[in-house]
TrEMBL record:
<dbReference type="InterPro" id="IPR020829">
    <property type="entry name" value="GlycerAld_3-P_DH_cat"/>
</dbReference>
<dbReference type="Pfam" id="PF00044">
    <property type="entry name" value="Gp_dh_N"/>
</dbReference>
<dbReference type="GO" id="GO:0051287">
    <property type="term" value="F:NAD binding"/>
</dbReference>
<dbReference type="InterPro" id="IPR020830">
    <property type="entry name" value="GlycerAld_3-P_DH_AS"/>
</dbReference>
<dbReference type="InterPro" id="IPR020831">
    <property type="entry name" value="GlycerAld/Erythrose_P_DH"/>
</dbReference>
<feature type="domain" description="Glyceraldehyde 3-phosphate dehydrogenase NAD(P) binding">
    <location>
        <begin position="122"/>
        <end position="283"/>
    </location>
</feature>
<dbReference type="Pfam" id="PF02800">
    <property type="entry name" value="Gp_dh_C"/>
</dbReference>
<dbReference type="InterPro" id="IPR036291">
    <property type="entry name" value="NAD(P)-bd_dom_sf"/>
</dbReference>
<dbReference type="GO" id="GO:0004365">
    <property type="term" value="F:glyceraldehyde-3-phosphate dehydrogenase (NAD+) (phosphorylating) activity"/>
</dbReference>
<comment type="similarity">
    <text>Belongs to the glyceraldehyde-3-phosphate dehydrogenase family.</text>
</comment>
<protein>
    <submittedName>
        <fullName>Glyceraldehyde-3-phosphate dehydrogenase</fullName>
        <ecNumber>1.2.1.12</ecNumber>
    </submittedName>
</protein>
<dbReference type="InterPro" id="IPR020828">
    <property type="entry name" value="GlycerAld_3-P_DH_NAD(P)-bd"/>
</dbReference>
<keyword id="KW-0560">Oxidoreductase</keyword>
Protein backbone atom coordinates (compact mmCIF):
# COMPACT_ATOMS: atom_id res chain seq x y z
CA UNK A 1 0.00 0.00 0.00
CA UNK A 2 1.08 3.57 -0.66
CA UNK A 3 2.79 5.50 2.11
CA UNK A 4 0.64 8.46 3.17
CA UNK A 5 3.42 10.43 4.84
CA UNK A 6 4.56 13.56 3.05
CA UNK A 7 1.63 13.65 0.63
CA UNK A 8 0.61 17.05 -0.66
CA UNK A 9 -2.47 18.32 1.16
CA UNK A 10 -4.22 19.64 -1.96
CA UNK A 11 -3.67 16.34 -3.74
CA UNK A 12 -5.16 14.43 -0.79
CA UNK A 13 -8.14 16.80 -0.66
CA UNK A 14 -8.76 16.26 -4.40
CA UNK A 15 -8.76 12.49 -3.88
CA UNK A 16 -11.26 12.88 -1.02
CA UNK A 17 -13.52 15.06 -3.18
CA UNK A 18 -13.68 12.26 -5.75
CA UNK A 19 -14.87 9.86 -3.04
CA UNK A 20 -17.90 11.90 -1.94
CA UNK A 21 -20.25 11.09 -4.87
CA UNK A 22 -19.28 7.42 -4.68
CA UNK A 23 -20.03 7.25 -0.94
CA UNK A 24 -23.37 9.01 -1.40
CA UNK A 25 -24.41 6.95 -4.40
CA UNK A 26 -23.63 3.67 -2.65
CA UNK A 27 -25.83 4.71 0.28
CA UNK A 28 -28.75 6.08 -1.73
CA UNK A 29 -28.85 3.56 -4.56
CA UNK A 30 -27.51 0.37 -2.98
CA UNK A 31 -28.04 0.87 0.79
CA UNK A 32 -24.32 0.32 1.25
CA UNK A 33 -22.75 1.99 4.29
CA UNK A 34 -19.01 2.62 4.00
CA UNK A 35 -16.57 3.18 6.84
CA UNK A 36 -12.90 3.12 7.83
CA UNK A 37 -12.42 0.89 10.87
CA UNK A 38 -15.94 1.79 12.00
CA UNK A 39 -15.70 5.53 11.23
CA UNK A 40 -18.55 6.29 8.82
CA UNK A 41 -17.72 8.15 5.61
CA UNK A 42 -21.24 9.23 4.64
CA UNK A 43 -21.83 12.96 4.98
CA UNK A 44 -18.20 13.91 5.52
CA UNK A 45 -16.59 16.80 3.68
CA UNK A 46 -13.36 16.30 1.75
CA UNK A 47 -11.46 17.64 4.74
CA UNK A 48 -13.39 15.29 7.00
CA UNK A 49 -12.47 12.29 4.89
CA UNK A 50 -8.78 13.23 5.01
CA UNK A 51 -9.05 13.72 8.79
CA UNK A 52 -10.60 10.27 9.26
CA UNK A 53 -7.68 8.71 7.40
CA UNK A 54 -5.28 10.51 9.72
CA UNK A 55 -7.36 9.67 12.80
CA UNK A 56 -7.37 5.91 12.23
CA UNK A 57 -3.58 6.05 11.97
CA UNK A 58 -3.37 8.01 15.23
CA UNK A 59 -5.55 5.40 16.92
CA UNK A 60 -3.04 2.66 16.17
CA UNK A 61 -4.29 1.29 12.85
CA UNK A 62 -2.01 0.84 9.85
CA UNK A 63 -1.69 4.04 7.75
CA UNK A 64 -4.20 4.12 4.91
CA UNK A 65 -3.55 6.01 1.68
CA UNK A 66 -6.40 7.92 0.07
CA UNK A 67 -5.46 6.46 -3.32
CA UNK A 68 -6.18 2.99 -1.97
CA UNK A 69 -9.51 4.03 -0.44
CA UNK A 70 -10.59 5.68 -3.69
CA UNK A 71 -9.63 2.64 -5.77
CA UNK A 72 -11.68 0.36 -3.52
CA UNK A 73 -14.70 2.71 -3.53
CA UNK A 74 -14.63 2.89 -7.34
CA UNK A 75 -14.43 -0.88 -7.62
CA UNK A 76 -17.21 -1.46 -5.07
CA UNK A 77 -19.42 1.06 -6.87
CA UNK A 78 -18.85 -0.74 -10.16
CA UNK A 79 -19.70 -4.11 -8.59
CA UNK A 80 -23.02 -2.70 -7.27
CA UNK A 81 -23.45 -5.04 -4.26
CA UNK A 82 -26.65 -5.34 -2.26
CA UNK A 83 -27.33 -3.76 1.12
CA UNK A 84 -24.27 -4.08 3.35
CA UNK A 85 -21.96 -2.37 5.83
CA UNK A 86 -18.51 -2.34 4.23
CA UNK A 87 -15.28 -1.47 6.01
CA UNK A 88 -13.08 -0.08 3.24
CA UNK A 89 -9.98 -0.01 5.46
CA UNK A 90 -10.27 -3.73 6.07
CA UNK A 91 -10.76 -4.40 2.37
CA UNK A 92 -7.49 -2.56 1.75
CA UNK A 93 -5.61 -4.13 4.65
CA UNK A 94 -6.79 -7.70 4.06
CA UNK A 95 -6.08 -7.76 0.33
CA UNK A 96 -3.35 -10.26 -0.60
CA UNK A 97 -0.18 -8.72 -1.99
CA UNK A 98 -0.22 -10.81 -5.17
CA UNK A 99 -2.61 -12.89 -7.23
CA UNK A 100 -6.15 -11.73 -7.98
CA UNK A 101 -6.91 -8.27 -9.32
CA UNK A 102 -8.66 -5.76 -7.08
CA UNK A 103 -11.97 -6.41 -8.86
CA UNK A 104 -11.64 -10.18 -8.52
CA UNK A 105 -10.69 -9.89 -4.85
CA UNK A 106 -13.63 -7.58 -4.05
CA UNK A 107 -16.10 -9.72 -5.99
CA UNK A 108 -15.16 -12.67 -3.78
CA UNK A 109 -15.24 -10.75 -0.49
CA UNK A 110 -18.51 -8.96 -1.28
CA UNK A 111 -20.28 -12.08 -2.56
CA UNK A 112 -22.44 -12.40 0.61
CA UNK A 113 -24.03 -9.03 -0.27
CA UNK A 114 -24.94 -10.09 -3.79
CA UNK A 115 -28.69 -9.78 -4.09
CA UNK A 116 -29.10 -8.54 -0.51
CA UNK A 117 -32.04 -6.18 -0.18
CA UNK A 118 -32.64 -3.44 2.36
CA UNK A 119 -34.95 -4.19 5.27
CA UNK A 120 -38.50 -2.91 5.27
CA UNK A 121 -38.79 0.45 7.05
CA UNK A 122 -39.46 0.44 10.79
CA UNK A 123 -40.95 3.49 12.50
CA UNK A 124 -39.03 4.75 15.55
CA UNK A 125 -40.36 7.08 18.25
CA UNK A 126 -38.10 8.73 20.81
CA UNK A 127 -39.91 9.11 24.12
CA UNK A 128 -37.83 11.85 25.73
CA UNK A 129 -35.39 14.18 23.98
CA UNK A 130 -32.49 14.64 26.38
CA UNK A 131 -28.79 13.90 25.92
CA UNK A 132 -29.25 10.36 24.57
CA UNK A 133 -32.48 11.11 22.73
CA UNK A 134 -30.94 13.91 20.68
CA UNK A 135 -27.86 11.85 19.80
CA UNK A 136 -30.08 8.96 18.73
CA UNK A 137 -31.96 11.42 16.54
CA UNK A 138 -28.71 12.60 14.93
CA UNK A 139 -27.60 9.03 14.21
CA UNK A 140 -31.00 7.95 12.87
CA UNK A 141 -31.15 10.97 10.56
CA UNK A 142 -27.60 10.29 9.34
CA UNK A 143 -28.56 6.67 8.65
CA UNK A 144 -31.55 7.65 6.54
CA UNK A 145 -30.94 6.51 2.98
CA UNK A 146 -33.53 5.36 0.50
CA UNK A 147 -36.32 5.10 3.09
CA UNK A 148 -35.45 1.61 4.31
CA UNK A 149 -34.38 0.47 7.75
CA UNK A 150 -35.03 2.61 10.82
CA UNK A 151 -37.13 5.75 10.27
CA UNK A 152 -37.31 8.41 12.97
CA UNK A 153 -40.94 9.51 12.94
CA UNK A 154 -41.60 11.31 16.21
CA UNK A 155 -40.39 12.51 19.57
CA UNK A 156 -42.57 12.72 22.67
CA UNK A 157 -41.90 15.42 25.27
CA UNK A 158 -43.69 17.52 27.83
CA UNK A 159 -44.31 21.08 26.62
CA UNK A 160 -41.80 23.32 28.35
CA UNK A 161 -42.67 26.78 27.04
CA UNK A 162 -44.58 28.63 24.32
CA UNK A 163 -41.59 28.41 21.99
CA UNK A 164 -40.92 24.78 22.89
CA UNK A 165 -40.64 23.58 19.29
CA UNK A 166 -37.95 26.13 18.39
CA UNK A 167 -35.98 25.31 21.52
CA UNK A 168 -36.10 21.56 20.84
CA UNK A 169 -34.89 22.15 17.28
CA UNK A 170 -32.09 24.39 18.53
CA UNK A 171 -30.91 21.73 20.97
CA UNK A 172 -30.81 19.22 18.12
CA UNK A 173 -28.85 21.65 15.93
CA UNK A 174 -26.32 22.85 18.51
CA UNK A 175 -24.53 20.84 21.15
CA UNK A 176 -21.76 22.10 23.43
CA UNK A 177 -20.08 18.68 23.54
CA UNK A 178 -20.75 17.08 20.17
CA UNK A 179 -20.78 20.20 18.01
CA UNK A 180 -23.24 21.35 15.39
CA UNK A 181 -25.66 19.04 13.61
CA UNK A 182 -24.32 18.02 10.21
CA UNK A 183 -26.95 19.60 8.02
CA UNK A 184 -30.11 21.67 8.10
CA UNK A 185 -32.63 21.93 10.93
CA UNK A 186 -35.87 23.91 10.53
CA UNK A 187 -39.31 23.83 12.11
CA UNK A 188 -42.87 23.64 10.79
CA UNK A 189 -44.74 25.27 13.65
CA UNK A 190 -48.18 24.69 12.17
CA UNK A 191 -47.59 20.93 11.87
CA UNK A 192 -45.48 20.88 15.07
CA UNK A 193 -42.62 19.18 13.28
CA UNK A 194 -38.84 19.46 13.25
CA UNK A 195 -37.36 19.01 9.78
CA UNK A 196 -33.76 17.74 9.82
CA UNK A 197 -32.05 17.01 6.50
CA UNK A 198 -35.46 16.41 4.97
CA UNK A 199 -36.64 14.07 7.75
CA UNK A 200 -39.91 15.29 9.22
CA UNK A 201 -40.03 14.53 12.94
CA UNK A 202 -43.42 14.91 14.57
CA UNK A 203 -43.23 16.51 18.02
CA UNK A 204 -45.93 15.04 20.26
CA UNK A 205 -46.64 16.69 23.59
CA UNK A 206 -47.78 14.22 26.22
CA UNK A 207 -47.06 13.04 29.75
CA UNK A 208 -48.99 9.79 29.45
CA UNK A 209 -47.20 7.01 27.55
CA UNK A 210 -50.37 4.91 27.42
CA UNK A 211 -52.77 7.30 25.66
CA UNK A 212 -50.98 8.53 22.51
CA UNK A 213 -52.60 7.74 19.17
CA UNK A 214 -49.49 7.33 17.01
CA UNK A 215 -51.60 5.99 14.16
CA UNK A 216 -53.13 9.45 13.85
CA UNK A 217 -49.67 10.55 12.67
CA UNK A 218 -49.42 7.57 10.29
CA UNK A 219 -47.01 5.82 12.66
CA UNK A 220 -47.53 2.06 12.83
CA UNK A 221 -45.84 -0.90 14.55
CA UNK A 222 -43.29 1.49 15.99
CA UNK A 223 -40.42 0.82 18.33
CA UNK A 224 -40.58 3.36 21.16
CA UNK A 225 -37.19 4.21 22.63
CA UNK A 226 -37.74 5.39 26.21
CA UNK A 227 -34.93 7.81 27.10
CA UNK A 228 -36.54 9.25 30.21
CA UNK A 229 -35.42 6.69 32.79
CA UNK A 230 -38.74 7.18 34.61
CA UNK A 231 -39.67 3.52 34.26
CA UNK A 232 -37.21 0.65 34.33
CA UNK A 233 -39.51 -2.29 34.97
CA UNK A 234 -41.93 -4.22 32.80
CA UNK A 235 -45.02 -2.75 34.43
CA UNK A 236 -43.98 0.85 33.83
CA UNK A 237 -42.61 0.39 30.33
CA UNK A 238 -45.60 -1.67 29.19
CA UNK A 239 -47.64 1.54 29.33
CA UNK A 240 -46.17 2.38 25.92
CA UNK A 241 -47.66 -0.79 24.46
CA UNK A 242 -51.17 0.46 25.28
CA UNK A 243 -50.77 3.35 22.85
CA UNK A 244 -52.13 2.81 19.35
CA UNK A 245 -49.32 2.22 16.84
CA UNK A 246 -46.67 0.80 19.20
CA UNK A 247 -45.24 -2.68 18.73
CA UNK A 248 -42.12 -2.77 20.93
CA UNK A 249 -40.19 -0.77 23.52
CA UNK A 250 -36.46 -0.26 24.10
CA UNK A 251 -35.18 1.27 27.34
CA UNK A 252 -31.92 3.25 27.30
CA UNK A 253 -31.03 2.37 30.88
CA UNK A 254 -30.53 -0.83 32.88
CA UNK A 255 -33.79 -2.75 33.04
CA UNK A 256 -35.05 -4.58 36.08
CA UNK A 257 -35.60 -8.34 35.96
CA UNK A 258 -37.17 -10.08 34.09
CA UNK A 259 -36.32 -7.64 31.26
CA UNK A 260 -33.49 -8.71 28.97
CA UNK A 261 -30.50 -6.33 29.16
CA UNK A 262 -28.90 -6.41 25.71
CA UNK A 263 -25.26 -5.47 25.05
CA UNK A 264 -24.84 -5.57 21.30
CA UNK A 265 -21.97 -7.80 20.26
CA UNK A 266 -22.39 -9.96 23.37
CA UNK A 267 -25.94 -11.20 23.69
CA UNK A 268 -27.91 -9.52 20.91
CA UNK A 269 -28.58 -13.01 19.56
CA UNK A 270 -30.99 -13.38 22.52
CA UNK A 271 -33.34 -10.81 20.97
CA UNK A 272 -36.46 -12.63 19.80
CA UNK A 273 -39.33 -11.40 17.70
CA UNK A 274 -41.65 -12.11 20.61
CA UNK A 275 -39.78 -9.71 22.93
CA UNK A 276 -41.94 -6.65 23.47
CA UNK A 277 -39.75 -4.76 25.96
CA UNK A 278 -35.95 -4.77 26.05
CA UNK A 279 -33.20 -2.80 27.75
CA UNK A 280 -29.97 -1.58 26.13
CA UNK A 281 -28.28 -1.67 29.58
CA UNK A 282 -26.06 1.25 30.66
CA UNK A 283 -23.19 3.08 28.99
CA UNK A 284 -20.68 1.58 31.42
CA UNK A 285 -22.03 -1.95 31.04
CA UNK A 286 -21.74 -1.58 27.26
CA UNK A 287 -18.18 -0.28 27.59
CA UNK A 288 -16.77 -2.98 29.85
CA UNK A 289 -18.71 -6.13 28.95
CA UNK A 290 -17.11 -6.66 25.49
CA UNK A 291 -13.60 -6.20 26.94
CA UNK A 292 -14.38 -8.55 29.81
CA UNK A 293 -15.78 -11.11 27.36
CA UNK A 294 -12.58 -11.00 25.29
CA UNK A 295 -10.35 -11.33 28.36
CA UNK A 296 -12.46 -14.09 29.88
CA UNK A 297 -12.29 -16.08 26.65
CA UNK A 298 -8.50 -15.79 26.38
CA UNK A 299 -7.38 -15.75 30.02
CA UNK A 300 -10.34 -16.62 32.26
CA UNK A 301 -11.57 -14.01 34.75
CA UNK A 302 -11.46 -15.27 38.34
CA UNK A 303 -12.63 -12.04 39.96
CA UNK A 304 -12.29 -8.32 39.56
CA UNK A 305 -13.18 -4.79 40.55
CA UNK A 306 -14.44 -2.11 38.17
CA UNK A 307 -13.80 1.53 39.06
CA UNK A 308 -15.36 4.07 36.72
CA UNK A 309 -14.19 7.68 36.45
CA UNK A 310 -17.43 9.01 35.03
CA UNK A 311 -18.36 12.39 33.60
CA UNK A 312 -21.10 14.22 35.47
CA UNK A 313 -24.68 13.84 34.27
CA UNK A 314 -27.89 15.86 34.37
CA UNK A 315 -29.11 14.11 37.52
CA UNK A 316 -26.44 15.98 39.53
CA UNK A 317 -26.62 19.58 40.71
CA UNK A 318 -24.55 22.36 39.13
CA UNK A 319 -24.08 23.92 42.57
CA UNK A 320 -24.82 22.55 46.03
CA UNK A 321 -28.51 21.91 46.57
CA UNK A 322 -30.85 19.24 47.90
CA UNK A 323 -30.69 15.89 46.12
CA UNK A 324 -32.34 12.66 47.20
CA UNK A 325 -29.18 10.74 46.31
CA UNK A 326 -26.11 10.57 48.54
CA UNK A 327 -23.42 13.14 47.58
CA UNK A 328 -25.08 13.98 44.26
CA UNK A 329 -26.44 17.18 45.72
CA UNK A 330 -22.93 18.65 45.80
CA UNK A 331 -21.70 20.67 42.84
CA UNK A 332 -20.94 18.41 39.87
CA UNK A 333 -18.65 20.98 38.23
CA UNK A 334 -16.54 21.63 41.34
CA UNK A 335 -16.14 18.19 42.90
CA UNK A 336 -15.20 14.59 42.39
CA UNK A 337 -18.16 12.65 43.76
CA UNK A 338 -18.05 9.05 44.93
CA UNK A 339 -21.20 7.23 43.94
CA UNK A 340 -22.50 3.76 43.24
CA UNK A 341 -22.65 1.89 39.95
CA UNK A 342 -24.53 -1.25 39.14
CA UNK A 343 -22.52 -1.84 35.99
CA UNK A 344 -20.27 -4.54 37.45
CA UNK A 345 -23.21 -6.63 38.60
CA UNK A 346 -25.09 -5.89 35.38
CA UNK A 347 -22.29 -7.50 33.35
CA UNK A 348 -23.54 -10.92 34.45
CA UNK A 349 -26.88 -10.30 32.72
CA UNK A 350 -24.98 -10.43 29.43
CA UNK A 351 -22.15 -12.72 30.61
CA UNK A 352 -23.71 -15.17 33.09
CA UNK A 353 -20.34 -16.89 33.67
CA UNK A 354 -19.15 -13.77 35.54
CA UNK A 355 -22.03 -13.82 38.02
CA UNK A 356 -20.73 -12.84 41.48
CA UNK A 357 -17.14 -12.29 40.30
CA UNK A 358 -17.14 -8.50 39.92
CA UNK A 359 -17.55 -5.54 42.23
CA UNK A 360 -17.81 -1.92 41.18
CA UNK A 361 -17.85 1.71 42.26
CA UNK A 362 -17.77 5.07 40.53
CA UNK A 363 -16.32 8.55 40.85
CA UNK A 364 -18.16 11.36 39.05
CA UNK A 365 -15.73 14.03 37.82
CA UNK A 366 -16.10 17.58 36.41
CA UNK A 367 -16.05 16.72 32.70
CA UNK A 368 -19.19 16.74 30.52
CA UNK A 369 -18.51 13.62 28.45
CA UNK A 370 -16.18 10.62 28.01
CA UNK A 371 -15.54 8.36 30.98
CA UNK A 372 -12.88 5.84 31.97
CA UNK A 373 -13.31 2.35 33.40
CA UNK A 374 -10.43 0.74 35.26
CA UNK A 375 -10.70 -3.06 35.28
CA UNK A 376 -8.62 -4.68 38.03
CA UNK A 377 -8.78 -8.39 37.26
CA UNK A 378 -7.42 -11.64 38.62
CA UNK A 379 -7.06 -14.07 35.72
CA UNK A 380 -6.58 -17.83 35.46
CA UNK A 381 -3.75 -17.85 32.92
CA UNK A 382 -0.70 -15.61 33.34
CA UNK A 383 -0.33 -12.66 31.00
CA UNK A 384 2.22 -10.12 29.83
CA UNK A 385 1.46 -6.56 28.79
CA UNK A 386 2.70 -7.10 25.24
CA UNK A 387 0.66 -10.27 24.82
CA UNK A 388 -2.57 -8.79 26.18
CA UNK A 389 -2.22 -5.63 24.12
CA UNK A 390 -1.51 -7.52 20.91
CA UNK A 391 -4.54 -9.71 21.52
CA UNK A 392 -6.89 -6.78 22.23
CA UNK A 393 -5.54 -4.82 19.26
CA UNK A 394 -6.37 -7.75 16.96
CA UNK A 395 -9.78 -8.14 18.58
CA UNK A 396 -10.49 -4.47 17.80
CA UNK A 397 -9.49 -4.91 14.17
CA UNK A 398 -10.84 -8.28 13.10
CA UNK A 399 -13.12 -9.97 15.62
CA UNK A 400 -16.87 -10.06 16.06
CA UNK A 401 -16.40 -7.41 18.76
CA UNK A 402 -14.76 -4.85 16.50
CA UNK A 403 -17.84 -2.58 16.60
CA UNK A 404 -17.65 -2.63 20.39
CA UNK A 405 -13.90 -2.56 21.18
CA UNK A 406 -11.33 -0.09 19.92
CA UNK A 407 -7.66 0.08 20.82
CA UNK A 408 -5.22 2.96 21.08
CA UNK A 409 -1.53 3.34 21.86
CA UNK A 410 -0.53 6.98 22.26
CA UNK A 411 1.22 8.83 25.08
CA UNK A 412 -0.81 11.97 24.32
CA UNK A 413 -4.48 10.91 24.26
CA UNK A 414 -6.87 12.36 26.84
CA UNK A 415 -10.61 12.08 27.33
CA UNK A 416 -11.72 14.66 24.75
CA UNK A 417 -9.95 12.67 22.02
CA UNK A 418 -12.72 10.08 22.32
CA UNK A 419 -15.72 12.39 21.98
CA UNK A 420 -17.77 10.97 19.11
CA UNK A 421 -16.28 7.48 19.21
CA UNK A 422 -18.58 4.91 17.61
CA UNK A 423 -17.17 2.11 19.77
CA UNK A 424 -18.56 1.10 23.14
CA UNK A 425 -15.08 1.20 24.73
CA UNK A 426 -11.48 1.96 23.78
CA UNK A 427 -8.62 0.08 25.44
CA UNK A 428 -5.67 2.34 26.29
CA UNK A 429 -2.78 -0.03 25.58
CA UNK A 430 -0.03 2.11 27.12
CA UNK A 431 -1.86 2.05 30.45
CA UNK A 432 -2.18 -1.75 30.60
CA UNK A 433 -0.57 -3.43 33.62
CA UNK A 434 0.02 -7.19 33.56
CA UNK A 435 1.81 -9.14 36.27
CA UNK A 436 1.32 -12.89 36.16
CA UNK A 437 -2.33 -13.41 37.22
CA UNK A 438 -3.06 -9.71 37.80
CA UNK A 439 -4.33 -7.62 34.90
CA UNK A 440 -5.34 -3.94 34.97
CA UNK A 441 -6.97 -2.42 31.91
CA UNK A 442 -8.00 1.16 31.24
CA UNK A 443 -11.03 1.52 28.96
CA UNK A 444 -12.18 4.92 27.67
CA UNK A 445 -15.78 5.35 26.53
CA UNK A 446 -17.93 8.14 25.19
CA UNK A 447 -20.76 7.56 27.63
CA UNK A 448 -23.11 9.53 25.38
CA UNK A 449 -22.29 8.92 21.70
CA UNK A 450 -20.59 5.53 21.97
CA UNK A 451 -23.51 4.28 24.03
CA UNK A 452 -26.01 5.77 21.57
CA UNK A 453 -24.33 3.80 18.77
CA UNK A 454 -24.86 0.62 20.77
CA UNK A 455 -28.53 1.53 21.24
CA UNK A 456 -28.89 1.96 17.48
CA UNK A 457 -27.34 -1.49 16.94
CA UNK A 458 -29.90 -3.03 19.30
CA UNK A 459 -32.66 -1.15 17.46
CA UNK A 460 -31.41 -2.56 14.16
CA UNK A 461 -31.44 -6.04 15.65
CA UNK A 462 -35.01 -5.60 16.88
CA UNK A 463 -36.09 -4.32 13.47
CA UNK A 464 -34.13 -6.93 11.53
CA UNK A 465 -32.41 -4.14 9.63
CA UNK A 466 -28.77 -4.62 10.61
CA UNK A 467 -26.94 -4.97 7.29
CA UNK A 468 -24.54 -7.77 6.41
CA UNK A 469 -21.07 -6.77 7.60
CA UNK A 470 -18.15 -7.15 5.21
CA UNK A 471 -15.41 -8.27 5.24
CA UNK A 472 -16.68 -11.08 7.46
CA UNK A 473 -15.30 -10.81 10.96
CA UNK A 474 -13.16 -13.66 12.15
CA UNK A 475 -12.34 -15.35 15.41
CA UNK A 476 -9.31 -13.96 17.21
CA UNK A 477 -7.25 -16.02 19.67
CA UNK A 478 -4.13 -15.39 21.73
CA UNK A 479 -2.09 -17.29 19.19
CA UNK A 480 -3.28 -15.30 16.18
Amino acid sequence: MTDVHGENWLAREELAERMIPLIGSLRRERDVITSLHGHRLLGLSATGIVEVHDRVARLGHAPLALEDTLAVLEAVHALAPGAASIDVARLVGDRPGTGASLEEYLAEVLAPASGAVAADPTDVVLYGFGRIGRLLARILIAHTGGGSGLRLRAIVVRRGSENDLVKRASLLQRDSVHGSFAGSVTVDEQAEQIIANGTRIQVIYSDDPASIDYAAYDIHDAIVVDNTGRWRDEAGLSQHLRSNGVARVLLTAPGKSPLKNIVHGINHDRVEESDRILSAASCTTNAITPVLAAIDEAYGVVKGHVETVHSFTNDQNLIDNFHKGDRRGRSAVLNMVITETGAAKAVSKALPQLEGRLTGSSIRVPTPDVSLAVLHLTIERPATKAQVNDYLRRVSLHSKLRQQIDYVESPEVVSTDFVGSHRAGIVDGLATIADDDTLILYVWYDNEFGYSCQVIRVLETMAGSHPVVLPTRREVTLEG
